[in-house]
Specification:
Number of strands: 7
CATH topology: Rossmann fold
Shape: globular
CATH class: Alpha Beta
CATH superfamily: Alpha/Beta hydrolase fold, catalytic domain
Number of helices: 5
Distance between the termini: 38 Å
Structural class: alpha/beta
Strand content: 15-25%
Largest sheet: 7 strands, mixed
Order of helices and strands: EEEHEHHEHEEH
Strand order of the largest sheet: 1-2-4-3-5-6-7
Helix content: 25-40%
């Protein structure tokens, strides 16, 4: 693992990137969006697995600007961390990460996708609504609908589906306490109506 410097609109930061053997380059690339806890051992192991399969994997560190992840030791603190994380900034950082990845010369610029877990699954979906040229997206149990909008969370993900620019694969649990089956059904209906 190395770190890639991203020149973002909100200040430069470094984030982990995994690059396969030189013989496999240029490679397809993935922007991996972690869960709310940020870059941890689990996320890095998933990135290494994807690297082993031949992908360049950039793990977007939401907290690189602050220097440390939030306290997520209780459900209340997790909720507060989710509410405090700016969709606007994360998506801006993702756009800047795509530019940085392309500059490495190690990726096929026409084969970039997104993958994310929990809040990262939501960002994997939202990033594909931003006209960044992503080829595909995989969302593992990402939020579908916000309970309340704010300046840093201006649109529920389901409201952005009209601008979804690539195929989406979503994985959701039947008994997820945070995402209702009604929201999953609404997502499925919206995707079926999307061309």
């Amino acid at each position: 693992m190395t770190k890639l410097t991203i020149d973002s609109r909100t200040g430069s930061f470094q984030t982990p990137v995994m690059i396969p053997e030189a013989t496999k380059l240029p490679a397809a690339a993935l922007i991996l969006f972690p869960a709310i806890a940020g870059v941890n051992d689990y996320v890095l192991r998933r990135a290494q697995q994807l690297q082993g399969a031949g992908y360049v994997v950039l793990v977007l560190d939401y907290y690189a600007h602050e220097g440390h992840p939030p306290d997520v030791s209780t459900p209340q603190k997790i909720g507060a961390a989710v509410e405090a994380l700016s969709d606007v900034r994360v998506l801006s950082d993702a756009a800047d990460a795509v530019v940085a990845l392309k500059r490495t010369g190690k990726i096929d610029p026409d084969r970039i996708g997104t993958l994310g877990f929990c809040i990262g699954g939501m960002y994997a979906l939202l990033a594909c609504c931003e006209s960044l040229g992503f080829l595909a997206s995989v969302n593992y149990y990402g939020t579908i609908r916000y309970r309340q909008l704010s300046a840093i969370k201006p649109h529920s993900p389901i409201e952005r589906l009209g601008t979804l620019a690539c195929p989406l694969l979503g994985h959701f649990g039947t008994f997820d306490r945070l995402i209702s089956m009604e929201d999953c059904d609404a997502l499925e209906r919206a995707l079926q109506g999307h061309s």
